[in-house]
Amino acid sequence: MKVYAESSELVIPISYESTEVIETGKWGFQKPHTAYMTAPCVETCPAGNPIPTFIYLAGEGKFGEALETILKENPFPGVCGRVCFHPCESVCNRNQYDEAVSVKALERYVFDATVDLSSKLNPAPNSDPKKIAIIGAGPAGLSCAYFLALLGHRVTLFEARKEPGGVLRWGIPDYRLPKSVLKREIKRILRLGVEMKTGVMVGKQISMESLNQFDALFLSPGAGVSLPLRIEGENLAKVWKGTDFLNRINTGEKVRPGKEVIVIGGGNTAMDVARSARRLGSSVTVAYRRTKKEMPAISDEVEEAEQEGVRFEFLIQPVEVKLLKNRKLRIKFQRMKLRKTSQDERPRPIPIKGDFVMMEADRLITAVGEGVDLSWIPQVLIENGFLKPASSSWSGKTKVFAGGDAIDQQRSVVMAISSGKRAAISIDLSFRGLDPEEVFSKIRVGSKGALSMEAYLKGRETGVWEEPKGVVVYDQLNTVFFMPSERVIPGRLDTVKALKGFSEVHTGLSSEDARRSALRCFSCGTCNYCYNCYFFCPEGSVSLDPVNRIRKVDLDHCKGCGTCVRACPRHVIEMRLIS
Amino acid sequence: MREFMTGNHAVAHAVKLCRTPLIAAYPITPQTSIYEKLSEWEASGAIKGIMMRTESEHSAMASCIAASLTGVRTFTATSSQGLALMHEMLHFAAGCRVPVVMANVNRLMSAPWGFWADQLDSLSQRDTGWIQLYCENGQEALDSVIQAYKIAEQVYLPFMISLEAFFVSHFMEPVEIPDQEKVDQFLPPLDLPHRFNMEKPGFYVPVVPSELYRKYRHMAQNSMDSVKEIAAQVDQEFKAAFGRGYGIIEPVMMEDAEIVLVTAGSITSTARLAIRALREQGHRIGLLKIRYFRPFPRESLQQALRGKKKIAVIDRNNSIGGGGIFCQELRAALVHSSDHPFIYSYVAGVGGTDVTPEVIQKIALHAIDRTEPVDESIWIMEE
């Protein structure tokens, strides 16, 4: 056979030099921009938890980094991973594809999997640290303290009770939130240099006026006063207040509610009361004046209460309580019906005239809502029975802020955390003489109220903040690259076991389930190094470094074809015209 | 083994016998049954390797070029518009000196739209640097694919085998399928000197200065010229191994012929019959089949047609403004012949119209009656 070429170059020209000298990037008129958009879950989380980022890290098995990521925006991953009502999951883009990602369970897993608490959290440099007093060490107060400490300020926390935690310590029962978890979270916060003074009640041990020595105040007294039923017989010794009942359990007292217990209310306190009473051996009936659909309690709680044998009576409202000779209580209930008032409002319960029902019980526990004790608070800080989130003046120079359940906002742990963060930034801005609203418009996460501490810190030194990112909607995802998969459900104690005591009901995810669950995340708007752009780029201009989390485009050679934008399943990249 | 099959399936059988590990193609009528047969075999595991179902013929050819540069045998099949879409990549294939083998089912070029036999599609690609061969029937198509690999892989030039739509692609005939073992012996494994080298990464198709461009073009021309000799040699080897040979050109009853019909493709078969009848009528007529169009077998034709008085070329194609393309090429090849014959150009069978023995006799008689040369192509139409 004839050989017509002795070496490859004799057949065709082959260059062994780099073609990088040819700057094809100069041909383009638009360039890809790694936009890192906001996912709907992050927007909806009141704490602005960077969910896709922490889930990406969790999926990589980097739980420590995942925890650090959450801690940038939320000091309570272990708590929120257990008790949050997870609005993030209801807006998860995956709902439109198959089923939402189990964000809450993953957050808990990340916390549980991280034994080492020596996180790399360091206070930001602050050449002019201020002194701030925080009244009330519940989730809002602790959150505010945490973020102020991260901003380099000196924080003193005043707590009336003998231990910090507020509703997390004295309200939520152990089977939902073990005390050890809370302790770990608080320890981490205090280690930032927050001074904690427990057993100090403002108005008793110290006066409100004495707080004037601080540069700013944050009030987070919570809402711990059980609201009355305003009916005859509610002051009988056999009628308990729900918050008192939970408080006694959480103090470690041996409480015996009796054989037959009736709980009045449909919120989370009512569910905590009912399920606690079940654990104390009672047979429990919850009476609520509307229907199941209108119950303000987290639906998971209602479902689990049902599974634990809690009975529900809907559309009844107590009107009278009597103590019978046999030491039992007889409660007279008025039957109700619902009337729809307007499109947005919840339907209102209306009494059905003359229609009553009698029930007997050993104990009645009321949980129809909690009020704020405002007795010790100057009038100027109050508006419509709530504390004002920010008051410009009170008695001279001290600026006063407030948060948590004592202000007029939805009552949940994550909202309390959110208000603490918002106040911390407001306080910091007040020292800098900047308009908080203007700054909030830059550091907002989407448009549902959440703020990003990370974004705030980025512009804090220069006073210049980037524009906030857009929110990725489902249609912007390229779902061709996804596969349907089932939502991962965390494990739970069986009911018999659960009712034996106050052991945590949810057992969490197994490591395999956690990984599987994490990998289900579409990672909307956040690069998770799927390498699609890298593989699809016709120019080989994309370089990815998952270890250091760097995504770079060689703009000298990117022609601006936009293929990467199309190939990105999660809308991380956007094309921008070259100006 | 002898089987009754279409020309397209004969091509598919050849690809299978050559153990081509990478096939990249896009379906188009009337080529699709090649694609389908190979797909079927890929699915059943009868052929080993990858069948790339690309999004266009342009991509199919680009895939073949890239794969070929990794040092593997490649194949694609197309037709008409698909071939036209490949045009840019055809130049790249030749310029990259890759021995890609392609079957092109000759179909008319649109518009108007149609699917019928016409050689204009492949003849339009004559300057792309591909070896071009025209088959008369299914058996020749099968045998030519095997020969094509052996030739292409020696000269590092791509090879296009053309078979006419329906007349060859879909007509069923008995076809002898060679033994795999014998094909393996006949066809050595591919060894491409310029394949990608992981040890020494390089950039292919770089920008080159004018002189270098000219150098490589000239090298390709020399390689193409060498095909005439290598193709004849491979055909002889093939004949020795399988008992069938075709030559570069094939003269039929030429010894005493005064007038010679020149054909390519399936019209040749009909012409074989037609000249027998004409000879019975007393005409000293012969037939010359042109198998290779690129490289154009100039020397062989000059030799075969020496001393002939009249030549009638039948073209199933027409270059608008130029006439029958085989005839143009033949006239150019014979321009320096001392006893310059009259070369008549007949355009017949365009658009898949039937070229019957009667049509061929009519052409022959027309040429016999002429006493003067005619420059233009003469179109043969129904009365």
What does this protein structure show overall?
- The complex is a heterodimer of chains A (579) and B (383).
- Chain A is built from 19 helices and 25 strands.
- Chain A is of the alpha/beta class and 579 residues long.
- In chain A, a hairpin with a 2-residue loop joins strand 17 (382-383) and strand 18 (386-387).
- In chain B, the strands form 3 sheets. Chain B has a 7-stranded mixed sheet with strand order 3-2-4-5-7-6-13, sandwiched between helices. In chain B, strands 10-12-11-14-15-16 form a 6-stranded mixed sheet, with helices on both faces.
- At the A-B interface, strand 1 of A face strand 9 and helix 8 of B.
- Strand 1 (14-15) of chain A pairs antiparallel with strand 9 of chain B, so a sheet runs across the interface.
Write a concise keyword list for the protein shown above:
heterodimer; A: 579 residues; alpha/beta; 5-stranded parallel sheet; 19 helices; 20% strand; B: 383 residues; 7-stranded mixed sheet; 6-stranded mixed sheet
